[in-house]
Amino acid sequence: MSGLTKEAVQKMLDDTIKSAFDISLNDLREQQTKNMEVMMLALAKDRSQLAKDQDKGAKAAQLVRALAACRGSASDAAKYVKQLKGGGDASVIKALEASTGTAGGFLVPTELSSEIIELLRPAAVVRRMNPLVLPMDNGALQISKITAGATGGYSGENEDIGEDAEAFGMLNLSWKKLSRLVPLSNDLLRFAAASADTVVRDDLIQALAQREDQAFIRDDGTAGTPKGMRYWANAANVSASAGTTLANVVTDITALINGLENNDVRMIRPGWLLSPRSKNYLISIRDSNGQFVFRDEMNKGMLFGWPYAATNNIPNNLGGGTESEVYFVDFADAVIAEASELIIDASDQASYVSSGTLVSAYSKDQTVIRAIARHDFGMRHDYSVAIKTGVTWGA
């Protein structure tokens, strides 16, 4: 190095830095290219999944729309589907041609009906919380359960071992008939584009989901309805809210968790159900330092480490007119017994009640779809539900 001039040393340094910079720049470009490829693959996957989600239930909706357009005649509906742009879906045509349904009614095939039931999962909050769904092919389902467990004990040498036994019970479920009316514009039925099937599908799913959730959460099991969680809960697990302060809220939440854990509930898939008003109150509540307490976690769909769902099927006008409820449930013990077929009726002569007013489908140029689903709901253990009543969070 002693023979090198200052200029030569400087040139060597410059060349070394430039070479290192060029390598780093090339590495950066290669990494950016890889990142772009990953993003494009992910985008393509998302688009593919979106297309699948959009197609899911479309065949069932096409069948329903065809039946509605043909006033329930399966043979006419099959011809109608064949005339649709693109020739319609072959499986829908086959189902219609094989139908024994008479004018005014049709039994949706199990395969197509299952698509609708699958789409109910994100639309209905109880299904979204992943309960146990079982088929109920014969209209009834019995599930055995342990009502009292055996206990162990100690014994001395040469002493008889104490006798103990488990006690068993039975969860008996039998299908209940859910009927919902979906009015459709006849102009929509005359419109042969695939987008019309999406409208029919979404209206049908929303109609079923709203009433089903109401039943699974708060129906009392009378007048042909399922018994919901509110009435499955053990009385010891139903208690009044402590109040609206942060300390009260923590007390309420802790009490609900204790209601399950203190009774040896397995805590496999626990989760919360509450009204949107209660949810928004929790998201907005602050501590003494002005920091949001639950917001970050709830924005990720969790509360105290477990998922939650908000629904207006938990009312805010209970008690004195401003009270609500909060539910904590191990959904691994919640059972939906499902008779998968949907029964569809179509009429352009029917009337229906909308917001307390009787509406004539004929005068409105509508066809009324009546969807009938059959299912029941039950809890394998009554201590797997804990409820706070008199909740005035956000009132």
Word description of this protein:
With 395 residues, the protein is an alpha+beta fold. It has one domain: Major capsid protein gp5 (Major capsid protein gp5 fold, 2-Layer Sandwich), CATH 3.30.2400.10. The strands form 4 sheets. The protein has a 6-stranded mixed β-sheet. Strands 1, 2, 5, 11 and 14 form a 5-stranded mixed β-sheet that branches. A hairpin with a 2-residue loop joins strand 12 and strand 13. The N and C termini lie far apart (82 Å). About 4% of the residues have low confidence.
Keywords:
395 residues, alpha+beta, Major capsid protein gp5 fold, six-stranded mixed beta sheet, 15 strands, extended
How much beta, percentage-wise?
15-25%
Class in CATH? Alpha Beta
Mean pLDDT value? 83
Rg (C-alpha, Å): 30 Å
Largest sheet strand order:
6-15-10-7-9-8
One letter per element, helices H and strands E, the order comes to HHHHEHHEEEEHHHEHEHHEEEEEEEE
Class inferred from helices and paired strands: alpha+beta
Give the number of helices.
Answer: 12
Q: Which of globular, elongated, flat, extended, rod-shaped describes the shape?
A: extended
CATH architecture: 2-Layer Sandwich
Q: For the record, give the distance between the C-alpha atoms at the N and C termini, rounded to a whole number.
A: 82 Å
Task: Write down the domain tally.
Answer: 1
Which topology does CATH recognise? Major capsid protein gp5 fold
How many E strands? Answer: 15
Helix content: 40-55%
